[in-house]
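Pasting as-is:
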Amino acid sequence: MTIDEKRKVFQGSENENLISVSYTDIISLSESKNIRIKNIGKKFSKINSFFFEFLKGYNLPVGYLKISEDENLIFSDHHLFPFSIRILNIVDKRTAKVFGRNETDVLSIPIYELHYGSGKETLVSDDHLIALEVCLVEELKMMFRIASKVNVVLKSFFERRNTSLAEVTCSFGKQDERIFLVNDFSPLSIKIITPGKAAKGLNPYRLSNQEAIERYTDYLLNFTTN
């Protein structure tokens, strides 16, 4: 599942290039199936904005600057790395199948996966990225350090609200020599599992129709207002 995202470079008030990111109301469930969900793009923007501001409070490097009046996310200009770091705090479906474990078992140590692009087979190794000159060794080490702290901070955030962070994905940009977070902290990235009746029927790994997407998005949005 992906949401239609628009990125536009523009010049800020201090002759500085900025990047505006907007989310439309179109969700792609597959290569051949798109659905339109009213106001889903604005909700994604609000959720992203909240978590970027929250992470800034813990001195994590983020490229996010603000949310505009028309609810676009404004970032410092940057080179976007074409891969992301996916952090697993539970055993996901793929890991369960490979290692013969039970799906959703809690991990004592998180798993960090590198994913390149947006196709089905995106899992790569650090050797791929270094050997093919996608990034430098030092840059990748910095990204892993940032991702590790993001995981710790967000796990604590959700634990204080009686829920568990199952998974989060971090993407990175670079401006000059600075590496920072650029996206994405929306329902596409943050997967939380909550026990009890409050979360009945909510499965962040089964967002396959409009109702499921709306329910999980609204559920995650609720955490940003309490």
